[in-house]
Structure formats: structure tokens, C-alpha cells
Amino acid sequence: MGAVGAVAFSKKERNFFVSGSSDRTLKVWNMDAVSGNNEEIITLKAKAVVAAHDKDINSLAVAPNDSLVCSGSQDRTACIWSLPDVVSVATLEGHKRGIWSVEFSPVDHCVLTASGDQTIKIWAISDGSCLRTFQGHI
């Protein structure tokens, strides 16, 4: 129902994408039925929807193995969700302003977040703990 603020494609199978909105929802969309390259507008049906945050979702990233998605929000949190059922794995709390970018490590079990508080944080996926905080964009 709100403006779409973030999208991310699956990395491995490339058969779904996720979207995040100003209505605070995270949606998973199936791409299996989409074929061809015509320019007609297609109405998709979300295969999973979750009320993910208390404010707008600014950023999304899908893990390299397609098993997780991370959402970053104006509510100063990032959340890690399991796929395809979109169940909460961890909530990453510690930024003082909204989160504008999230990204999974391609090799380690961690997530990067970048915030309006001028910091970048590395988080452990296993328990949601902050491993490091970096400053430098002051």
C-alpha cells in the first residue's frame, strides 16, 4: 500500500525477488511465472508478506545462498529473516539513526549496515551481535 523503497533479487536460483515499502512490509515475489521480454505490466501475487519494521524499509539484501534476507529501516534497526517463509532470525539494534544500506558478506556469516549516524557496523548472523563499528564519514 506504500511506496516501494527497496528491492533485491535472489542470488542463487534467481527465481524470486523481495521488496520493502513505506508501509513497513517485506514481500517475497515468485518469478517462476514471468517469461518473455514484452513490456506489458504484470500483476504478481506475493508468496510471503510480513510486517517487518516500525518505519519505512530503506534497504534489502538477499544472502548468497538465498536462505536469508536482511532489511534496513528508518526505525534504526535491521532485521534478518529466513526464506522462503520470512521468519525472524535476528534484530540488529545499535544504530542511532535510520539504516540506509545492508549487505551480506559473500563468505562470512555476517551482515554490514550503513546508517545516517555516520557509522558502518558488522553484525554476526548467528546471534545478532555487533562485531565491529566503523566511523570515517564524518
UniProtKB/TrEMBL annotation:
Keywords recorded for this protein, A-Z: Repeat, WD repeat
InterPro entries the record matches: WD40/YVTN_repeat-like_dom_sf, WD40_PAC1, WD40_repeat_dom_sf, WD40_rpt
WD repeats: 1-32, 50-91, 92-133
Gene3D superfamilies named among the record's database cross-references: YVTN repeat-like/Quinoprotein amine dehydrogenase
Top-level lineage group: Eukaryota
Protein name: U3 small nucleolar RNA-associated protein
Species whose genome carries this gene: Solanum tuberosum (Potato)
